[in-house]
Design goal:
Strand order of the largest sheet: 5-4-3-2-1-6-7-8-9-10-11
Helix content: 25-40%
GO biological process, one term: innate immune response
Radius of gyration: 34 Å
Domain F-box: 72-119, 373-416
Number of helices: 16
Pfam families: FTH, HTH_48
Protein name: F-box domain-containing protein
Mean pLDDT: 80
Oligomer: single chain
InterPro entries: DUF38/FTH_CAE_spp, F-box_dom, FB224, Mos1_HTH
Shape: extended
Structural class: alpha/beta
Largest sheet: 11 strands, mixed
């Protein structure tokens, strides 16, 4: 009786497969329909594929004995060189799935360094978002357990959210030889640290780190290989926490970095700590008077220096912007302070720019005695015709909007 029931069930499964074939549904869609109808564990995909193609080619014997068939080839029968070639062309996320299949594939996958362009982690006490390059994984707390959404599936679990979160991150950081070009971590208020899942060290070229508690950041920073870590963007340190600032300056990661972006107030005396950097961004302490000429004299002594961005809030409106201008103009022959699009017209900007460029630093120079500047309307009419003739219709349309005289010159030529 049991044997008869098993045969009946077997024939029912094969009838389901045959029905998919007769509907001309592609095999992957067919297998998905099959699993939804009879369950995920009713038949493995290789067996489904065998019967699908038998029926597809008109071989309808449901009782065909497969014992006489040769053993099907698997991925493990593939030549090792071909397997390595395939692994080489997988992206890092695909390679992590491959290494989880068995020990042999794990060894092949681990023979190549896993290099991510971006790793982004955003975590709170009830939510986590993990981005690996262009693939996103999300885990959120539910009333009874949690829900995990991956690029491939959505899974509801009875597992505790915190345990699921740590398990997900552990599977990432236990990968051998992990490397990342840009690592970004944000731990929101109430989020526990992820220190326990970090490896002893991992290679990140650039890091952006934020947490309400800086004690969560330093263990993560220390796990990054000094020298490999070139750029550090710290968004966490409280503006007036000098102890945390000094603690950061003493890390090997900072001492061997090339670029830093810091969200705190520094004093001019701290500036020499940046002497090894190629670029840096930070904010000058607005509670103290700032010697901008001293800043100007210090920065050019930095051997690796390429650029910097220094901010100084003026909430108390206690100094004149010309103080900075006079100190820094000799140092910056090209460029200007950003004060808005309408602050000064270009001809006036050009006038002052070249005065300063040639060392004429009188900010109160009276321009009223200067000869009147020439304009486009002083150009000989033949030259103006020559210019307009070589403009395309769109450029000519813009030109004619300037004033009536130029409009007449532009209209002399056919616009379209």
């Amino acid at each position: 009786m049991e044997e008869s029931s098993a045969v009946t069930n077997d024939h029912h499964l094969k009838n389901c497969i045959l029905n998919e074939v007769l509907k001309k549904i592609p095999i992957f869609d067919s297998y998905r329909n099959f699993c939804e109808a009879v369950g995920q564990d009713a038949m493995d995909y290789p067996d489904f594929e065998f019967w699908y193609y038998r029926f597809y080619h008109g071989q309808m014997n449901f009782d065909y004995d497969r014992n006489m068939d040769p053993v099907p080839k698997t991925i493990m029968d593939m030549p090792i060189r071909l397997m390595q070639k395939i692994t080489e062309h997988l992206d890092p996320v695909e390679r992590t799935y491959l290494r989880s299949m068995n020990e042999s594939l794990k060894e092949v996958a681990d023979s190549y360094p896993i290099i991510f362009e971006n790793i982004l982690i955003r975590a709170s006490d009830d939510y986590m978002r993990l981005e690996l390059n262009d693939k996103m994984f999300r885990c959120s707390k539910e009333t009874n357990g949690c829900i995990l959404i991956t690029p491939f599936k959505e899974v509801k679990s009875q597992e505790n959210f915190m345990e699921k979160r740590l398990k997900t991150l552990t599977s990432l950081f236990k990968l051998p030889n992990i490397q990342v070009n840009h690592f970004s971590l944000t731990l929101f208020n109430g989020s526990p640290t992820i220190t326990e899942v970090l490896p002893g060290s991992f290679h990140a070229k650039s890091a952006e780190l934020y947490a309400f508690d800086m004690d969560h950041i330093f263990p993560i920073l220390s796990a990054m290989s000094p020298g490999v870590l070139e750029s550090i963007h710290l968004k966490s340190i409280p503006m007036d926490d000098s102890d945390q600032m000094l603690r950061f300056f003493e890390t090997e990661q900072f001492k061997q970095a090339k670029h830093v972006d810091l969200k705190w107030y520094y004093k001019v005396d701290d500036l020499m700590r940046f002497s090894h950097l190629k670029s840096f961004k930070c904010e000058v302490d607005f509670f103290e008077a700032v010697d901008f000429q001293r800043i100007r004299d210090i920065i050019p002594t930095f051997k690796q220096f390429e650029s910097c961005e220094l901010k100084r809030a003026n909430n108390r409106r206690d100094f004149d912007i010309r103080t900075i201008a006079l100190a820094l103009v000799p140092m910056i022959p090209f460029g200007f302070l950003e004060v808005g699009q309408d602050a000064m017209k270009y001809p006036d900007f050009e006038f002052w720019y070249y005065r300063f460029y040639h060392g004429e630093m009188d900010l109160d120079y009276d321009r009223s005695l200067d000869p009147e500047a020439k304009t486009i309307m002083d150009m000989p009419i033949r030259l103006m015709h020559k210019i307009v003739e070589n403009l395309d219709p769109v450029e000519r349309a813009y030109l004619r909007s300037m004033n009536k005289a130029i409009k007449e010159v532009a209209d002399f030529f056919t616009t379209f």
